[in-house]
Amino acid sequence: MFANRYFPATRLRRMRRDDFSRRLMRENVLTTNDLIYPVFVLEGEGREQAVTSMPGVVRQSLDKLLFTAEDALQLGIPMLSIFPVIETGKDNSGKEAYNPDGLVPTVVRELKARFPELGIMTDLALDPYTIHGQDGLLDDSGYVLNDETTEVLVQQALCHAEAGADVLGPSDMMDGRIGAIRSALEEDGYIHTKILAYSAKYASAFYGPFRDAVGSAANLGKADKYTYQMDPANLDEAIQEVAMDLEEGADMVMIKPGMPYLDVIRRIKDTFKVPTYAYQVSGEYAMLKAAFQNGWLDEEKCMMESLLAFKRAGADGILTYFALDAARLLRR
Ligand code: PBG
After folding, report:
1. Measured distance CA(76)–CA(57) in Å, rounded
2. What percent of the chain has pLDDT over 70?
3. Residue 241, C-beta contacts closer than 8 angstroms, at least 6 positions apart
4. pTM of the model
5. Among 34, 110, 243, 316, which lies 20 to 30 A Cα-Cα from 142?
6. What Rg, from alpha-carbon coordinates, does the chain have?
7. 55 CA distance to ligand 1 centroid (A)?
8. DSSP reduced 3-state for 84
9. With 80 as the cut, is the pLDDT of residue 4 above it?
10. NCBIfam families, alphabetically (predicted)?
11. Domains of the chain: which residue ranges?
């Protein structure tokens, strides 16, 4: 029957045949400890709004967010990342960003009082607070000013640290801001406040649904963020960004977006061997959700596969809008 039969020297399928051997040789695992849950918070009370372009994601006022936070904590999710929807106090100086009685500090204080073990991260950038929707202050030509913006970010960082934020996430891409924030924190005695630098943040069109969620899309209009966020064509530049942020005092670094940038995650993890995070951004979530809703992709399987891919690429953790769903699945 098998004339001149060739026998494969190695049968890789041998180890794949049984569940026990598949488990024995598995190289990466996703656990709940890998998840950071981004949440959108509204001013006021008793409010909850669906985000149309992100099915399953809501904006909530603090009273409702407390239930979400409790769920996350009970599921074992280590940290929430807070994104505010600012309705009062927007201007072009960004001063609402460091109002101690503003939305974010209020939410942080309440969350830390109720759930001290739950890590709370805040975003440092001015886009939720500016009328034009850019992450920083503009000059007359519309250029985002670097050093002037950094000054405001430092105020924002101190305000969030004072409120009790555990981790600050500068997502603005100004040069030198990590160093400026770190030395201000040290000077004021906030030596335990961690910095998760959005180091390699690309000027991506995958942020569209997020800008709807925080309400900066309409303000931003046709404007773009090319003068400060990275060109999606570049990889070496990401290395330089991360090197700079680490030298300036970042504890953790982030690559953003996630799935289209797995090569960047791997390169950064291999180069620096520091805590490295990926942000599976709003557009990635929207894309997957749309396919799930149409019945074109299997929701549970594709969600988990997409998250595991980050682990394989070298990420220590993932900011993902799937965090609650994934944690529930992992618990089963
Ligand atoms: C803004 C910020 C953005 C995101 C997080 N922080 C959007 C932007 O840079 O325009 C995007 C997150 C997402 O798309 O899920 N500083």
Report:
1. 19
2. 99
3. 199, 200, 230
4. 0.96
5. 243
6. 21
7. 17
8. strand
9. no
10. PRK09283.1
11. 30-331
